[in-house]
Every structure is written in C-alpha cells, then in structure tokens.
Amino acid sequence: MKNLQIRVLLLTLFWAYGAFAQNPIKIGYFDYAYVISQLPEAKAADADLKAYTEKLQKDLQNKEAELRAKYERYVREGEKMPAPTREALAKEIETGQQQLQEFQQKAENDIVQKQNKLLAPINEKLEKTLKEVAKENGFTYVIRKEALLFEPEDTSLDVSVLVLKKLGITPAPANQQNTKPNNTTPNTNPNIKPNTNTKPR
User: Fold this and answer.
1) Range of the domain at 51
2) pTM for the full model?
3) Considering only CA atoms, which of 159, 178, 188, 183 is closest in space to residue 33?
4) What's phi and psi for 47, nearest 5 deg?
5) Which of 100, 89, 121, 115 is closest to 181 using CA atoms?
6) What is the C-alpha separation between 62 and 48, in angstroms, rounded?
7) Could you tell me the CA-to-CA distances from 131 to 143, 159, 176 in Å, in that order?
8) Considering the domain boundaries, does residue 14 fall inside one?
9) 129 lies in some domain
C-alpha cells in the first residue's frame, strides 16, 4: 500500500513538472505611476480635481473669515454689549466653529470621492489594456511595480511601455517622466485646514 502511494505521488509530481515545462509561468510588472503620468485623460482629471479642491478651499476661507470677524467683534465690543447680545454672539461663534470643522471634514471626503470618480474610467481602461497586453505577450501574471521587493534586471518584464503603445501613446523616457499627476493619489488632507482658535473667552 505504501509503495502504491509513493508511485501515485511520483506520477503526480511528474505530471505537474511536465505541465509546468509546457506552460512556464511568466510574471511581468507594471509601473502605474509612470503610465498614468502620460495619459492625457489623467492630466485632465488632475486639472479638474485641482480646480475642485481650490473652490472648496476658497469656500472654507470665506467661512473662516466670517467667523474671525465675529470673534474680533466679540473681543472688541463684548464688554460693552448687553449680556443677551454678548451671549448670543458667543453662541454664534461656537456654532460657527463646529460648522467650519464639519465643512472641512466633508470637503476632504468630497475630494476623495471626486478623485475616485475621475480615476475610475481611466483605471478601467488601463486594466482592460493591461489584460490584452499580458495575453498577447504570454504573461501569466502582472503585478504592480510598487509590490516588487526589488526591480528585476530584465526590463523586458516591464509591460508599462507596451501598455502605452497599445493606447497609442509614445512613451516618454523614464528620466523625463513625472512620477504622477499632482493628485492621483487619494489625499485626505487637501490643505484646507481652517484656523478655528476663535472661541470666546
């Protein structure tokens, strides 16, 4: 019985080796940042996101200016105001601080959602093209360059240029390419932090 099990195991290993020899695994890698930095639609998406972020930043700055004006009035005239008026203004400032923080948090979430929406069709197009390139060139797997522990010396395993050519884009030299458009990576800190230190004393 034991001899039979050994024979079965040997036959299984032999069959697996034969299958591997006939269909060797070919693994390539793909530089997402390099490719997306050269796509016209990605550059357009970056410009759109930048304009959207700047609008939210301007809105936040306007709200902050309104809140600061109320606080400065409170500091300047508070002691001269009737108590009910002073208390009402202090309440407005406190509420304004909360609203400002809520606006900032919502703006950050909206920017991420906007970015995802802009990049979704681009990523779908890249994925489709990548699958076609992998199939045409006999790659069993293609992984992101960022996932590599080290970059192989064999540059023929890099399918990035093949993907760009498939998309009809002449690849830029690696030393001239931008790493990526300014905002292609989700950014939860779009530099629209308000100054909310305006709590009445």
Assistant:
1) 28-166
2) 0.69
3) 178
4) -65, -40
5) 115
6) 21
7) 11, 11, 27
8) no
9) yes
Cα angle at 96 between 90 and 100, to 5 degrees? 150
Between CA 49 and CA 111 the distance in angstroms is: 7
For the domain that residue 152 is a member of, what is the CATH number? 3.30.910
Residue-averaged pLDDT of the chain = 80
2-29 residue pLDDT tens? 454 544 443 444 444 444 445 678 888 8
Number of domains into which the chain is organized: 1
Question: Nearest 5 degrees, angle CA 178-CA 181-CA 187?
Answer: 130
In the chain, which ranges are continuous DSSP H helix?
2-22, 32-36, 40-77, 83-136, 160-166
Amino acid at 99: Q
- 29's enclosing H/E stretch is strand 27-30
